[in-house]
From TrEMBL:
Residue intervals passing through the bilayer: none
SUPFAM superfamilies in the record: P-loop containing nucleoside triphosphate hydrolases (SSF52540)
InterPro entries (UniProt xref): P-loop_NTPase (IPR027417), Rab9 (IPR041824), Small_GTP-bd (IPR005225), Small_GTPase (IPR001806)
Family: Belongs to the small GTPase superfamily. Rab family.
Keyword line: Cell membrane, Cytoplasmic vesicle, GTP-binding, Hydrolase, Lipoprotein, Membrane, Nucleotide-binding, Phosphoprotein, Prenylation, Protein transport, Transport
GO cellular component: cytosol; late endosome; lysosome; phagocytic vesicle membrane; plasma membrane
UniProt-listed NCBIfam families: small_GTP
Places the protein is found: Cell membrane; Cytoplasmic vesicle, Phagosome membrane
Single biological process term from Gene Ontology: retrograde transport, endosome to Golgi
Molecular function (Gene Ontology), one example: G protein activity
Cofactor section: Mg(2+)
SMART domains in UniProt: RAB, RAN, RAS, RHO
Phylogenetic classification of the source organism: Eukaryota, Metazoa, Chordata, Craniata, Vertebrata
Protein name: small monomeric GTPase
């Protein structure tokens, strides 16, 4: 039995304070800390998951959103298979900045065809009451800027966090140039009967 597996690099981009680190921590270790420090540079964590029969090792890269750390984060964009453009629904400026993040990624990641690159948009902190960005205007932006999937997430109460990362994997697996990179890995089928004795090889 052979299951296809692949190492996929997913990168989180967005303004400082929108919840990128919190989303990664929620997804990987199912934890939430309301007093996280600002990220400086980048950090990454791995998570194994199974999506539609594919065993995937997701390498999640979390980046510093603050402007002063731009030169520390941009060298790590290259080689990303998917980009999670993240804003916070209680911060209208972080939503308005999505286009800048998309452009910054496309420039430094040196992607062949930015229009076909798999972006997923996350509107985080949907648990808060004082929203500044409606679901409708976020969905409209996603439609008008590439037909990107949009997820309303909360790292605080885990709403849609797994769904968003799993969709990122699906988008990559369905993009034609990625599928050929899947590394078929043989797995030992423990319940298979050993061959009748005879030649040893
Ligand atoms: N209510 C609520 N607060 C959140 C959520 N996600 C993150 N926060 C809080 O928002 C603040 C910033 O979260 P971070 O995860 O550090 O944000 P970041 O995008 O990594 O910020 P930088 O590292 O500066 O880029 C922290 O106090 C978090 O606890 C959420 O879904 N809901
Ligand atoms: Mg952070």
């Amino acid at each position: 039995m052979t299951t296809k597996s692949s190492l996929l690099k997913v990168i989180l981009l967005g303004d400082g304070g929108v919840g990128k680190s919190s989303l990664m921590n929620r997804y990987v270790s199912n934890k939430f800390d309301s007093h996280l420090f600002h990220t400086i540079g980048v950090e990454f964590l791995n998570k194994e998951l199974e999506v539609d029969g594919h065993t995937v090792t997701l390498q999640i890269w979390d980046t510093a959103g603050q402007e002063r750390f731009r030169s520390l984060r941009t060298p790590f964009y290259r080689g990303s298979d998917c980009c999670l453009l993240t804003f916070s629904v209680d911060d209208n400026q972080s939503f308005l900045n999505l286009n800048n993040w998309k452009k910054e990624f496309a420039y430094y990641a040196d992607v062949r065809d930015p229009e076909k690159f798999p972006f997923v948009v996350l509107g985080n902190k949907v648990d808060v009451t004082d929203r500044q960005v409606s679901m409708e205007e976020a969905q409209r932006w996603c439609q008008e800027n590439g037909g990107y999937p949009y997820f309303e997430t909360s790292a605080k109460d885990a709403t849609n966090v797994s769904a968003a990362f799993e969709e990122a994997v699906r988008r990559v697996l369905s993009s034609e140039d990625r599928a050929e990179h899947l590394l078929p890995t043989d797995t030992v089928d423990l319940c298979r009967k050993p061959r009748a004795s005879g030649s040893c090889c």
